Amino acid sequence: MKFTFSWLKDHLDTEASLDTIAETLTRIGLEVEGLDDKAAALKPYVVAKILTAEQHPNADRLRVCAVDAGAGAPVQVVCGAPNARAGLVSVFAPPGTYVPGKNITLSVGTIRGVESHGMLCSGAELGLGEDHDGILELPADAPVGQGYAFYAGLDDPVIEINLTPNRPDCTSVHGIARDLAAAGIGTLKRETLPALRGEGPCPVEVELAFEPADRHLCSLFALRLVRGVKNGPSPAWMQARLRAIGLRPINALVDITNYITFDRGRPLHVFDAAKVSGALTVRRAREGESLRALDGRTHALTGETVVIADRRGVESIAGIMGGQDSGCDETTTDVLIESALWDPANIAQSGRRLGIITDARYRFERGVDPASTLPGLDLATRLVVDLCGGTPSEARVAGEAPESERIIDFPWTEVRRLAGLDVPRTEAKLILETLGFHVSGTGDRVKVLTPSWRPDVEGKADLVEEIVRIAGLDRIVPKPLPRLAGVGGSLLTVMQKRTRTAKRALASRGLMEAVTWSFVPHTDAVLFGGGGADLALANPIASELSDMRPSLLPGLLRAAQRNADRGHPDAALFETGQCFTSDEPEGQTIRAAAVRRGSATVQGAGRHWDGSAETVDAFDAKADALALLGSLGVPTGGLQVTAGGPSWLHPGRSGTLRFGPKTEIGWFGEVHPRTLQELDLKGSLVAFEIVLDALPPPKHRPTKTKPALVLSEFQPLSRDFAFVVGRDVPAGDIVKAAQGAERKLVTGVDVFDLYEGPGVPAGSKSVALAVRLQPVERTLTDAEIEAVSAKIVAEVVRRTGATLRS
Amino acid sequence: MTDLDTLERDLLAQVSAASDEAALDAVRVAALGKKGSVSELLKTLGAMTPEERKARGPLINGLRDQVQAAVTARKAALAEAALEARLASERIDVTLPVREAPEVRGRIHPISQVIDEITAIFADMGFAVAEGPDIETDELNFTALNFPPGHPAREMHDTFFLAPDAAGKRKVLRTHTSPVQIRTMRSQTPPIRVIIPGRTYRHDSDQTHTPMFHQVEGLVIDTSANIANLKWVLEEFCKAFFEVDSVKMRFRPSFFPFTEPSAEVDIQCSRKGGEIRFGEGEDWLEILGCGMVHPNVLRNCGLDPDAVQGFAFGVGLDRIAMLKYGMPDLRPFFDADVRWLDHYGFRPLDVPSLVGGLTR
User: Fold this and answer.
1) Which end of chain B has the lower number of beta carbons within 10 A, N or C?
2) Whole-model pTM?
3) CA of B275, closest CA in chain A: separation in Å?
């Protein structure tokens, strides 16, 4: 919403400065977004006359001018403009002036050996838009010495406020003045004009043709004919104001409607009566109807749009834009003025669908004051008669304004309760009354009647806001939120703690945390087990951001490739975040995943004098996964690792992590070569992903006491065994067999060698174990050690078909 | 000069001449071994008369002690020399680089770090962390939050929609974290103090907007929380978060469908050479929106607006991360460029806390 300072003063009797007004507007919730005070910016620029213009002695294109700037002796100015000539009246800026168009500050200069004491200016140099070839040319009678901004009518500062959608009343200069008056900046000027008397009835009939359920679409429609007008340019003052706020003056009849739109927040429409045939019908548009509107475009209409039609068809889109065929121009002699009340929701929907943004729509979709319908029509009629002459008819009115006022039962204590501020009751009452509310009653509870122009005020909280925003939010003194008693317990849930720990644990393994889009291309979603219709966006912003991600991996894999493309082939990235298996809350899981590319091992990447990093393999991913589980304190006793994983991992070089046949918690491995191909990824990539929600919750224990520590006083000992087994026998089975052979004594089993080749039969492998024995009661005798060893061998042989390698 | 003197001089000379441990041992055995020259002399003591023994005993024993001591001393000297020689040969080039440790290389994304910072600050004021799904119902994202039916935010050009279900209802990607306010108020009994960090989505993509971004909201519901408390909470938060002793904040009346009264909050700052500093300067920077929870929202959660009350506020997480840490653009937040992560990310062990400070 834009307006000018002088326009505001039409409605507000005030001595306040522009700065005070701007500060106050922001303070009361009408945030000033722009302040264009050309009078201040152009203050040094004066109307000046070139007395003489001589050729510069040292430059063909320059002239040395004697300039009369209205004060004292003529000034010598060197000017390069082709139109600088004796007798020309133009604009002069003395040294010290800031030139906005050039972003320089003038000083006395010497140009090719001749002193220049200022500058003659072009429009562009003043920041006034388009340039011409040379300095401004003013009429010969322009008063030399006068400030240019004043002379050119640019001295009316333009204020732009960023209006919140709840304030339709402030789409008008009058409404803004009312708010300022309430804030103590002057007095609102109120003029009550007598109702306008017309001569004879309006000859054009009006029908509101709606089903009963649709009556709200146009609750009130008023029309008046003014005969015998002479349409032409509107007066200079009106044109200046319209231009200042960015509107293009058209002709007096159109300008009047635009002016009242901004002045009163009351949009109107004018039809050339000669171009309207028969009665006007207000109705929903019919399928197939269209209108060539004033924007020059032809708009196809549907039933959701309300139109004003005559015998020929649609003449205007209600509340949004009129039609070109029935518009007013210089030939118009009889004008129909329309002032109506449209449904905000319908106008908003219709305007959005048609893609038409107008000042009328802006106001109707926020809610035009229902009580302004007839006064608005009268005001427009008066202006038409004043500026264009003519004889008005009586108004024709169809429908009736809906009840728009509310009574709110308001206890004054509500201000203190919600705002924590004591506003004296007299002050609060004055604020409400200046804003147009009626307060009745005198006790602790009063009845407050809302004005017709405030559809946003519905209840007590709204009244508190009115009082507090005008009294000043800055008057509220911050007050500590009372501390909750004592030292609080944990404020984070198990999942929140696990997510936080997961991030630090993975980062500690040299991985960098990425945050990638929650949406992935449809093909990626399908590749990673998703892509269902329930998780596809109806309106994706781009085709590669179309489906909610089923996994973190497509985003991470693509990120690793992007880094490789930028010359960083050894990316190690992780992400912790949401993935989606359905559109229900339960279908959203938090996962942690990482990818390593190239040689990005946990020790580092690339070549190094102390041993170069090898290409990453599935065990790098497995190590990440197990480190994560370990850091989270998830007991891994029951954890099983089974061969193979989801379809996007290499079937022979991947594993699935589970706590039982049905509780998969994640997987790790090399990315499937086909997946690499489909995603157009290159290089070695390994990955893991763990569903944090699937992890078993920590056991709740009544105390935090740890189990007693039992330390043996006897030396532990270690025995090595090498077994030959079929190459498909999982090492894990051998380890498990060894562990289970003598649970009391075996405290650890490590695989320290793995061998296939000469010396081992084809199709077999040699697996070497170091078994750690911890005697509990006494040192073991050689015979006892032998017995345990034999038991271990027997158990491994029995469970895996191994033979002891001799 | 006796024979003993001669022997002593001879043996001591042999000891000091021994050039290694083996030679020294040979000397020791030749003198002090079972059949050594000194041992042989000691054996003669037994056959002596008491008088002779009295005279010769101390001399021979003295000789033995002398030689013993000389051997021990020589042995130590030889060991010392051998160690010196070994050390002289054992040299490494300590300027050779070691690999950078993983816990130094790894990075935490600024979003995670800032969430941890904010969580630490609000935990001190008794706020828990609430979360909710990214895919929301229209009811929770809009209706319950007092958005009227035709509100522009409900349009395709502002909000991401999923395909309509069998009943024709479309779910949305939440446009703010506010639906979690509704979920919290419907599932918990006041007093409530929560912050709600999370991902949010709007149909917007340009230089300064991304279709996905992050917000953190706060919600307090009890029987007395008012704007004065709200102002205090936000001032404390801004001071703690930006790590300055004082901030100047400006509360401007504004409008949100789910709060009444509503305000936008500007924070005073200075901008010098592309750096923003808080607690000084003359510029105002808008950083958050807030207000008292709208009575309709309370009612929609089954709460009586005359019995309970409270406030809510919302901040752009990415935005305040940018303000604090100086990232010039939003888009790289989601690009996973390792150069960006290395530069703007945080070390894994730099865990923000109030005890140790949010940053080092």
Assistant:
1) N
2) 0.89
3) 23
